[in-house]
TrEMBL record:
Residues 1-20 form the signal peptide. It comes from the Eukaryota. This is Lectin. Keywords: Signal.
Length: 224
């Protein structure tokens, strides 16, 4: 069974990112949303490294890193908040700007890691570079052999002028067809030699089917 857990993660900001705080989703939080943009996997792709030769293809057992840079629209419009939903086959660790935000180890143990997405609410650095990084692990199947692997992400970036931008997993994410290197989660990590992630198919594609975002009424960032 899927074990519910706190689904909004916020990082407390002082002069820099200091500590992670878990916040449960509540009805009052929904009311506080600044914009009514729904969080959905509608345009998100399952992605991997190209080693798997398509959706449902066989990927090596092991961990692979993924990175996504968040761009500032202008020097006057700055990113302030990210609401993110993540699911993986088999498990992931999520980092933003080098900070460990969360993982789905509980879902992996229960065997439901890609059926229900985890949701995080993360303040961004408005004055510097923002990078999302995922270390995604393809675990052994029942017979301890390579098996399908993938990760799917959707998010809403909120900017200082209260405009929003939808972010999804697709070929604009960077990855490597080799073990995740040390320090890959840091914003200044050199990824110029990384390759474009391979799109395996939209949400609903086999073998994963439709991934659920719980609660289904998540609609963007909280007012911090």
């Amino acid at each position: 069974m899927y074990a519910p857990k706190p689904i909004l993660a916020a990082i407390t900001l002082a002069t820099s990112f200091v500590s992670a705080v878990l916040l449960p989703e509540t009805g009052s939080n929904i009311v506080q949303r600044q914009e009514q943009v729904p969080l959905t996997f509608g345009n998100a792709q399952w992605i991997w490294t190209g080693e798997e030769a398509g959706a449902g293809g066989i990927a090596p057992i092991g961990s692979r890193g993924f990175r996504k840079h968040i761009s500032n629209p202008s020097s006057f419009v700055l990113p302030v908040c990210l609401t993110l939903a993540v699911a993986a086959d088999n498990e992931y660790v999520l980092y933003v700007n080098g900070f460990n935000i969360g993982n789905d180890f509980a879902g992996f143990i229960s065997g439901a890691s890609f059926l229900n997405a985890d949701i995080y609410n993360i303040p961004l650095n408005p004055e510097g570079e923002n990078v999302i990084a995922l270390n995604v692990t393809n675990g052994p199947g029942p017979t301890d052999v390579p098996n399908p692997a993938g990760v799917i992400v959707t998010g809403i970036i909120e900017f200082s002028d209260q405009s929003q931008e939808v972010l999804v997993s697709d070929s604009t994410w960077l990855t490597l067809a080799s073990d995740t290197p040390a320090g890959f989660m840091q914003p200044n990590f050199g990824d110029s030699a990384w390759i474009a992630a391979t799109e395996e198919g939209l949400d609903g594609v086999a073998p994963w089917g439709v991934t659920t975002i719980v609660p289904t009424n998540v609609i963007g960032c909280l007012n911090f």
